[in-house]
Amino acid sequence: MDVDNLRAAQHGLQRLAEHLATVATTTNRIPADIGDGWTGPAATAMKADLVGLGAQSTGFAPRFHDAAMALRTFADAAETFQTQTLSQYIRRWDEAESGAKSAYDKADRAYDDQIGWK
C-alpha cells in the first residue's frame, strides 16, 4: 500500500473541504450583496439557487474534512503496519521457524541414537 498516495489523497480532500467552506461563505453572501438591485422572477430564482448552493456547500465541507481525517488515520495505521508491525511478525515467524527446525533436528538425532543409526 502506497502511504504517500494516501497522504496525497488526504491533502486533496482537506483542500476540497477548505474550498467548499470558502464557496459556502461566498455563495451565502451573494443574495445579500445583490439585495434589491435586481428583482423579478429570475432574480428570485437565482437567489434561491444561491441559498441552496450555499447550504449544500456548508453541509458538504465538514464531510470532506471528516473523510480527510479518516484517510489520515488509515494512512497512519498502514504506515505503522508496514514499518513496525509487519517486520515484527516476520522476525517472530523466522524465530519460530528456526526454533521448530532446531527441535526437529534434535528429535531426529535422538531417534537416530535410539535406533542406533549414525
Q: What do these coordinates show?
A:
The longest helix is centred in the middle third of the chain and has 75 residues, at 41-115. The chain is built from two helices and no strands. α1 (3-34) packs antiparallel against α2 (41-115). The protein is 91% helix and 0% strand. The protein is rod-shaped, with a radius of gyration of 32 Å. The chain is mostly helical. The protein has one domain (3-115). The protein has helices spanning 3-34, 41-115.
**Anisotropy-based shape:** rod-shaped
Tell me the structural class: mainly alpha
Question: Biggest sheet: strands, sense, closure?
Answer: none
The total of beta strands comes to 0
Query: Structurally, how many domains make up the residues?
Result: 1
**Residues in helices, as a percent range:** over 70%
The count of helical stretches stands at 2
Low-confidence stretches: none
The H/E string reads HH
CA radius of gyration is 32 Å
Strand content: under 5%
